[in-house]
Fold this sequence. Notes:
Number of strands: 4
Largest sheet: 2 strands, antiparallel
Amino acid sequence: xxxxxxxxxxxxxxxxxxxxxRLQHGGFGEAVRCADPETGVPVAHRRAVDTLGAMQAxxxxxxxxxxxxxxxxxxxxxxxxxxxxxxxxxxxxxxGGDCITEQQIAARDRVASAMEVLGGSDSAAGSCVxxxxxxxxxxxxxxxxxxxxxRTVPATQAQGMLVAALSVLAxxxxxxxxxxxxxRNELTPPxxx
Length: 193
């Protein structure tokens, strides 16, 4: 006879936390315990750690770079360039199909101008911002997937590429002056060449 399987109780599941698979894709904040509004059952909510938020907390990027990443991410989402898609409206009675709105066109133009400043989508900075900030991949995932000359990019170099790209974006969006984005003090005049 087959034995009965034991089922885990909700208390055991709650204390387990995120799975190993989910933890490899980024860290989590502390669990916030509250009651489910519909059932009243106690639940633990965990918030996934944002790459740019973690970099700002570590002091790797400045507040202006963090803001530039947020602007790019908002424009990227408004342009509907992310991989997440809903059911096509053509299937719904009275649906309009895949029409692009004027707001999406304007957002795509802004994303295209930002990508042009970064050197295009084929450049290291453009590819890094597109995948890490726009598509919200981790820096390590982008570094392993993206290869230059047949080699993968080390995670530390990939993080440096992201920092440099965010600095350029901060200057592009007017959050910092171009001299400050290049690492020079605004009071020190540039050295003539």
